[in-house]
Amino acid sequence: MLSDWLYIFQRLTPLSLLDISLVALVFFVLLYLVRGTQAVQLLRGVIILALFIALVGYALHLPAFSWLVQRAVPALLISIPIIFQPELRRALERLGRTGSWLGFTPREQIAIEKVIAETVQACQRLAERRHGALIVLERGTGLQDYIETGVLLNASVSSGLLQTIFFPNTMLHDGAAIIRGDQIVAAACILPLTSQFLDDQRLGLRHRAAIGITEATDAIAMVVSEERGTISIAHNGRMIRRLDSARLDTVLHAFYQPQFRGTWLSRLGNTLRPGRRTSRTESAMSEVKQ
To answer: Which residue among 40, 69, 96 closes a domain?
Structure first.
């Protein structure tokens, strides 16, 4: 046994190590891109099915079953891109959002602080009055297709304007308001609804639309419940519910960070520069786990 390991290590070359490292990197990136999505369960099912087929077909030496599996493999390989189409699309979008790796300029950070402050204040006032609302913050993925379904505004973000948009019985209160940068680009926008099963059947169309848009894009969606007067936030197909204004501010600051914040590189940066953003990110992650 030891001799076999020695034989393997003797055959290793720098080029072999590079080859192994690249393969490991590919698998790491693929797993990183699908984490936190529905693809994790699908991938787990595929792995279990593959192990079962290998055990039954090859370990037990069943020629007919092995022949059937060999003929079915090409069809399965073709079906994988179809089954994982939403996840593959999101993964390619993440790879294309290279600008989000670099962080924000000071001017962009000031604009983000203003948008968050005005949005949090609007959500708080709307929740107190039980006025339903759906506010979407555009990030790296463009939302132009959804913007074109609504009424164009191109107005500066302000708490008063958001409260006016979602005042009951107005022309714009149905649908979503989409914010791009420091502008409310459009209101009364139509968003895709999620197809996943929701544990709480009392969640309405606004909540389903908020989850749906964050499944398809990297946007952040905030929902104010008209029935219960509660605030929720959706990101990456997940929803954090029953937030007050302070917790909403914390989660928004955490989700607005660059895409790769939380990886080993960003954790190293947080260690060298501890401060407000780190604590906010950790608090938001604890909210998601709850």
So the answer is: 96
Task: Answer yes or no: is 89 within a domain.
Answer: yes
Q: Element (H or E) spanning 183, and its range?
A: strand 183-189
DSSP string computed for 69-108: HHHHHHHHHHHHHHHTHHHHHHHHHHHH-GGGGS---HHH
Structural domain span for residue 236: 101-289
Quote the DSSP letter at residue 37.
S
Statement: the pTM of the whole predicted model exceeds 0.85: no
Terminal CA-to-CA distance of the chain, rounded, Å? 48
From the number of C-beta atoms within 10 Å of its C-beta (0-12, 13-18, 19+), residue 66 rates as: middle
**Do 82 and 105 share a domain, yes or no?**
no
Q: Which of 51, 45, 48, 53 is nearest to 71 (CA)?
A: 53
Q: Quick: pLDDT tens for 6-63.
A: 777 777 788 888 888 898 888 887 777 666 555 666 677 777 877 777 777 666 777 7
| Secondary element (H or E) of residue 137 | strand 133-137
